[in-house]
Design brief:
The complex is a heterotrimer. Chain B is an all-alpha fold. Chain B is built from 3 helices and no strands. Chain C is elongated. In chain C, strands 5-6-10-7-9-8 form a 6-stranded mixed beta sheet. Classes of the chains: A alpha/beta, B mainly alpha, C alpha+beta. Chains B and C meet through helix 1 and helix 3 of B and helix 1, helix 2, strand 1, strand 6 and helix 5 of C.
Chain lengths: 227, 103, 378
């Protein structure tokens, strides 16, 4: 259970270009549920995801992770919590060019200090799951869009996070691949993972797997209810 | 094999070679002692003052015997006409007092 | 413990993968860097070994030499000075030395001719250094033609060849009898090249030297200390080749540092952003950069030092020999005793590995402190 209380995020505070990205958001995200943040671009979805995923600190307000206040934790602890609790899937995939698929997948686990054989096993399992095993030692720039996306998802899962956060995951996918992605989301849900997706793609928020759609506009929630 | 293993083995190998180099230097130095002793004897009996590093110019053949004006051109720090003069420092006596050392 | 080792090895794995992406560029970097270390280490090994050997060997040099100066030049010294010097308190003995240079027009080489009383040679015979024996193709019994000061030929027979092992001292020496020396150069009987003075009490050498200058103002004393110090400073940092090498090395480092400081490309910045976003801490990113810098610099350092050792002590410094040789026809074949110390290696380490590694980390510092959400905002 992740609880957001009066979250406000301001960029360039006190300057002429001050911008309130998220304003007074109260939201509870249930464990094992799939939540979608819906809204036009610039509505604050991505910012809310970064705050929710402990990537950025809110300007004000509090975040409770399993009833534990995390907003005031020092950066090091916050990073450790983020690394172990959240898996991120980025809109641009954000894979590291020039190195192999399997290395990209293992990358978030390097600072944990796990032994390489164990880590490799985990990564290979994930690659099997996403049919990427034959591409394991290929460089990421040789992948197709769908393969790159699946590599990014595998990377998000390597630390076995409880929560998966995805920012516009279907933005670069065609309909078929988008539907496949929602199938993957369904599997995650079946495994008991909490999923938060920011998207304005109908394929995403019309999917039967979604538990809750949160509408956003100008940094505020306008409606929240079951899909 | 993982890359870090290859790298660590490489570095370890180099370090090993470097230790062998030190070992070689150690034994070589120890083995050279008789020759060095012989050299000392040569210096003593022939009353030599300098190493024979280069034979091209008077002041680089016998740097310690160089006189005030002729070697090292116009200034003790200046680059020399002779290639060897450019790598051999003028003698202490000249650096110490460019003008004749008369108390 | 194994946790820390695993973490560092994982990060090292990634650092190496990262470096291998730009294989050509990094290989060139390591090559240039190795050359810089090689040059610096070669100079260091060579000069240190020479200095050490000089200090050891020249400790046996005469404690005080007195030369006569005329119009700023070293001139022949009258033997009458001997008695005057002997009068100075503390002087044990005064011995004249006869030595000089002979230019051999046949092969355009300079020889150093020296009269030695310890092993007196019969007239018309000489003993030659190994270098001369080599260039003149001389052996026991060969005859060498000299031309005296007045143009008359003087034929001298080689009676012995000086040991090859002392070539660093005697390569160009010709030992000759006093009579032949005087005839060759036309030096009158009452004169010598210079005088060596033995002093009873070693502590009084400087005092004796000062007194000699006082009584004989046209002389200059050369102290053993000064000779030793000359060789301590013989290849000092001010000397040409050292400056050239140091400047070269410095320039190379500046280029490296510039490349590193300015060269944190948008691509690298983006990667650091991604690492931060997927859960790497600032410290992890800096460790990555540390390993990147260290793997390049340590490789170059170790290879450079090993190559320098081979160059100086196993291959007899062929690169420096060319410079030292210069225009001289007669070049001593000497093998240096490898006086190598850990402190030399440590100094080199701190002047090569440390700056590069730091230069790799510093520019990344700012990039590494960016907020992890940066990646999602762009």
């Amino acid at each position: 259970m992740i609880e957001l209380r009066h979250i406000r995020k301001v960029f360039n505070a006190g300057q002429p270009n001050e911008h309130v990205a998220v304003d007074d958001v109260n939201l509870a995200i249930g464990t094992g549920k799939v939540t979608v943040l819906r809204g036009p671009s610039g509505s604050g979805k991505t910012t809310l995801l970064t705050v929710l995923g402990c990537m950025a600190r809110p300007t004000s307000g509090r975040i409770l992770l399993q009833d534990r206040e995390v907003t005031s934790l020092p950066a090091r602890f916050l990073t450790a919590i983020r690394r172990k609790t959240f898996g991120f899937i980025f809109q641009q995939y954000n894979l590291i060019q020039g190195i192999s698929v399997i290395e990209n997948v293992m990358l978030p686990a390097y600072p944990n200090g796990d032994s390489l054989p164990a880590l490799k096993q985990r990564a290979e399992k994930l690659l099997d799951l996403f049919n990427l095993r034959p591409k394991a030692s290929a460089r990421v720039e040789w992948l197709s869009g769908g393969e790159a996306q699946r590599t990014a998802i595998a990377r998000a899962l390597v630390n076995d996070p409880q929560v998966i956060i995805a920012d516009e995951p279907t933005a670069h996918l065609d309909t078929k691949l988008s539907r496949e992605l929602m199938e993957i989301v369904k599997e995650f849900k079946a495994q008991g993972k909490t999923i938060v997706i920011a998207s304005h793609d109908p394929i995403v928020h019309d999917s039967p797997v979604i538990d809750k759609v949160v509408d956003m506009r100008d940094g505020r929630l306008i409606h929240s209810g079951a899909a | 094999m993982r890359k870090s293993s290859i790298f660590l083995i490489f570095i370890l190998g180099c370090t090993l070679v470097l230790s062998l180099v030190f070992l070689d230097a150690h034994f070589q130095t120890a083995g050279d002692l008789p020759f060095l002793r012989q050299e000392i004897k040569v210096v003593e009996t022939l009353k030599l003052t300098d190493l024979c590093l280069t034979t091209e110019a008077r002041h680089t053949r016998h740097p310690s015997q160089a006189d005030w004006h002729s070697p090292f051109q116009s200034h003790p720090g200046a680059l020399d006409h002779f290639p060897s003069g450019a790598i051999i420092q003028p003698p202490e006596t000249i650096i110490k007092g460019y003008e004749p050392h008369r108390q | 413990m194994s946790h820390i080792v695993n973490k560092q090895r994982n990060i090292l794995d990634f650092a190496l993968s990262s470096l291998l992406r730009r294989k050509g560029r990094n290989l060139a970097l390591v090559t240039v860097y190795t050359l810089v270390v090689f040059a610096l280490a070669s100079v260091m090994f060579f000069t240190q070994a020479l200095k050490k050997e000089a200090a050891l060997v020249l400790g046996a040099t005469p404690e005080l030499i007195v030369q006569k100066m005329v119009a700023g030049r070293h001139d022949l010294i009258p033997l009458s000075y001997i008695d005057q010097i002997k009068k100075i308190r503390g002087v044990a003995a005064v011995t004249p030395r006869l030595w000089g240079y002979y230019y051999d027009p046949l092969i355009r080489a300079n020889y150093t001719l020296l009269v030695n009383d310890t092993y007196p040679l019969p007239e018309k015979t000489i003993a030659v250094g190994a270098g001369i024996a080599r260039v003149r193709n001389a052996h026991r019994g060969s005859k060498i033609n000299f031309f005296a000061y007045d143009g008359k030929p003087v034929v001298l027979q080689v009676r012995g060849i000086l040991s090859e092992e002392s070539e660093l001292l005697s390569s160009d020496l010709i030992l000759i009898s006093a009579a032949d020396f005087r005839r060759l150069f036309g030096i009158p009987a009452g004169y010598a090249t210079d005088l060596t003075v033995q002093v009873r009490n070693q502590k009084e050498i400087a005092t004796v030297a000062a007194k000699i200058q006082q009584f004989l103002p046209d002389t200059r004393p050369i102290l053993r200390d000064e000779i030793m110090r000359t060789y301590e400073a013989v290849f000092d940092w001010r000397a040409g080749i050292v400056i050239v090498v140091l400047l070269g090395a410095l320039l190379a480092f500046l280029i490296f540092a510039w490349d590193k400081a300015a060269g944190l490309s948008a691509e690298e910045r983006r990667e650091i952003g991604i690492l931060k976003a997927i859960g790497w801490e600032t410290a992890d990113v800096l460790q990555l950069k540390f390993w990147e810098g260290l793997s390049v610099s340590l490789t170059a350092f170790l290879l450079g030092i090993i190559l320098a050792y081979i160059h100086i002590f196993l291959a007899a410094a062929p690169l420096f020999a060319t410079v030292i040789k210069g225009w001289s026809i007669l070049y001593p074949n000497f093998r240096l005793t490898p006086f190598v110390s850990f402190s030399q290696i440590a100094v080199l380490f701190f002047f090569t590995v440390a700056p590069y590694t730091v230069a790799t980390i510093i520019p990344s510092w700012r990039a590494a402190t960016i907020d992890p959400d940066q990646v999602m905002r762009t």
